[in-house]
Specification:
Elements: H1 2-27, H2 58-65, H3 76-87, H4 89-96, H5 101-126
Length: about 130
């Protein structure tokens, strides 16, 4: 159990670090990342990186985002909202511009799944 919590905390650290790189890449017009991002390099909000969009499930996203292994001072609703700001289709187009053409369709599908799951989680939090 403790090992899983440490692994989850490390996965969260990597997730945040990869988002920081993506944000810098976009603001610096790709700095070597332009059109070089593959599906498996997207920082998906799950513990175990998916190989296909169909592997993105609401329960896995919930466990990852709302885990007590990271962000103890951030309420669940705020965690979900922060994730929604990243995964909202209007915002995610910046990341999409860095994705290789052959993976773009899968990444768009995955982004849509994540956004829907996050909206579902937020709805449950608001009840």
């Amino acid at each position: 159990r403790m090992r899983r919590a440490r692994a989850l905390a490390e996965a969260w650290r990597v997730y945040e670090a990869r988002w920081a790189v993506l944000s810098r890449a976009h603001s610096q017009r790709g700095f070597g990342l332009h059109s070089a991002l593959a599906f498996d390099r997207i920082p998906w909000p799950v513990m175990d990186p998916p190989r296909h969009p169909s592997e993105l499930r609401v329960e896995a996203i919930r466990k990852f985002l709302l885990s007590s292994a990271h962000s103890p001072d951030v309420p669940p609703r705020d965690r979900i909202r922060a994730a929604l700001r990243r995964w909202h289709p209007d915002k995610f187009t910046r990341v999409l511009s860095l994705v290789i053409e052959s993976d773009r369709e899968a990444v768009v599908e995955g982004m849509g799944i994540v956004a829907r799951c996050l909206n579902e989680l937020l709805e449950k939090e608001n009840q």
